[in-house]
Each structure stands twice: as C-alpha cells, then as structure tokens.
Amino acid sequence: MVFKRILLPLIPAILVAQAPDAQSFSQRLRAEAPVIDQLLANARPLDARSKAEGLLPAQAPVWDEANPQTQVTSFYAFKEYVYAYYLASKAADASGDWEKSLEYLQSARNLSQVNADKAGVHFPAIISYYKDMAERSRKTLADNADYIKSLQAKANPDAGDLQQLELVKKEGESIEQNATRAQNYGKALEGAKQEAAYYASQVGLRDGEIKALAKSLDEYTFKNDKVKYVEGIMSAKGYLETQYPDKAARVRFLYRLRTLSPGDRKVLKSLNELTGTDFPLPPEEKPTPRRRRK
Questions:
Q1: Exposed site from 71, 106, 158, 178, fewest CB < 10 Å?
Q2: DSSP assignments along 169-229, one per residue
Q3: Quick one: which of 240, 249, 213 has its CA closest to 102?
Q4: Three-state SS for 43?
Q5: Cα gap 21→30, rounded to integer Å
Q6: Which of 109, 80, 83, 79 is nearest to 206 (CA)?
Q7: Are 77 and 19 in contact (CB under 8 A)?
Q8: What is the per-residue pLDDT across 26-63, written as a single tens digit (0 to 9) for each?
C-alpha cells in the first residue's frame, strides 16, 4: 500500500500558547516526525515504529466545544493527533505488523471523523461571524463615504483628522482580514471532511490486504502454516523480484514475512542484504545425510 503524504497542519501560535499540553505534544510531534520519515526512508522501520508509538497519547483527546476559541484549538490539536496515529500506522506497516497498522489507521479515522463532525457543527458560526464582521466594516465605510472623502481631501489635516484617517485605513484592512479568516475556516472545514474520507478509505484498503493474505494462507497446501508458507515463498526462485521489482515494496513484504515467521533465515538474510540491517541469523540447517544401504 502506498501512503499518501500528508502535510503537518500548523497550529496558530496564539492558540498553542493557551494550551500548554497541546503545545508540548505539538512540539514533540514536529521534532520527531522528520526523524521518523527519515528512518523509514532508510529502511529502519523498527526504529521508526518505536519513535512513532512513543508519540501516541496515553488516552484519547477531548474535543472542547466550550467556545469558539477552544473549538479552534481542539480542531488543530486533533489534526496533529490524527497525524501521529498516521505516522504510527505507516511505521507499523513498514515493520510488517499490518494488524497493528490497521488499528492505528482506525484510530486516525475515528479522530478525523470526530474532528470533521465537530467542526461541521461549530465552524459555520465562526465563518458567519467573520463574514458579518467584514460586511459591517464595508457598511461603515459606505455609510461614511462622504465624510471620508472630505478628510482625504484636506490639504492640512490636523491630529484629529489624521487619527480618523488611520481608523478608516484599519477598517478597510479588517475587511480583507476577516473575509480571509472566513474563507480559511471554510477551507479547514472542507479539508477535515476530505481527511476523514481519506482515512476511512485507507482502513478499507489495509483491512482488504490483511484479509487477502489470510485467504492465501487458508488456501495454502499446508493450511494456515505460516512457517511453511514463508519457506515456500523464499524457496521460489525469483518470486520476490518478479512480484516486487521495486526495492522498497520488496523490503516491506519481507518485513511482513518476518512477522509471519520471525526465525526464517532466508528472510532475515535478505533483509540484511537489502537494507544493511544486522538481524542475527539462526544456524543454517544441514540436510539429513542419507543412510547407506547394506
């Protein structure tokens, strides 16, 4: 499965400053996420997984609906918790533990759905607030258009006039600012819905992949014997190269085979050769010598 790259959302500094716990998590996530991605790029999924799982919260966060400020803070905090579960899922997938990867994807899906649902309830009011603010400023300027023109036409405005002109300037700037804020919250709401749909689809794909492999195991000659199943794949000359010509995909599948049969010498040796890891290899089995007939 190819994971779509997701950009880490930016939490406005003013909101983070009011939520120290969220700030601590956000800082750790931002510091560790690039390291985790680099470990995965370097084919070190076990190290990546350890770091990613260390970021996960001890308990599910709570979406605070108390007021617009807490709603916005919760929204951006949830986006980062979703991203943390996504990272953990990506690392678990690369390490061969598809079942745990599915669990983390389900958590990301659930949190993203909560975020989309809560934002769907509360963000329209926030959007309307900023639209109304922009409209009120437009009306104020329109209602005072003649007075503003007279101020602007003065050759030698006094201090009071200059103060009024500065207020007019700020009122004009606030129109664009508030209109932009309304637009941005609208985009954030739409983005949350798309994110929830994306994770729901990823859960379906990962679940389907696990079930497909389970079906292969069930239909295997040695029914559900994982060790023999892995032995069969590793003994089939050229199978991995044909099925997984891309090195990264081949390494991912080898880690999956390692999960199914942790002691398979050929799997561990292949991983060592392809990734530079140093998995200890079990002793090579020597063929049983044939007994001579007398």
A1: 158
A2: HHHHHHHHHHHHHHHHHHHHHHHHHHHHHHHHHHHHHHHHHHHHHHHHHHHSSSTT-HHHH
A3: 213
A4: coil
A5: 14
A6: 109
A7: yes
A8: 999 999 999 999 999 999 999 999 999 999 998 888 99
Provide the token pair at 238.
């050229």
* CB neighbourhood size of 157 (10 A): 14
Work out whether the CA dihedral 288, 232, 283, 272 comes out positive or negative: positive
Smallest Cα–Cα separation from 140: which of 163, 169, 112?
169
pTM of the complete model: 0.84
CA 232 to chain centre: 36
> What is the Cα–Cα distance from 291 to 145, expressed in whole angstroms?
109
Q: What is the pLDDT of residue 88?
A: 98
Instruction: DSSP for 84-136, please give it.
Output: HHHHHHHHHHHTT-HHHHHHHHHHHHHHHHHHHHHHHHHHHHHHHHHHHHHHH
Cβ atoms of residues 274 and 254 within 8 Å? yes
- CA separation, residue 195 to residues 70, 174, 191, 278 (Å): 21, 31, 6, 38
Unique residue bearing structure tokens 């918790």: 81
Tens digits of residue pLDDT in 212-243: 999 999 998 888 899 999 999 999 999 999 99
- What is the number of H-type helices and E-type strands within the chain? 11, 0
Chain center to CA of 228: 36
* Predicted local confidence at residue 59, as pLDDT: 85
From residue 155, give the alpha-carbon distance in Å to each of 83, 118, 195, 198: 58, 54, 56, 60
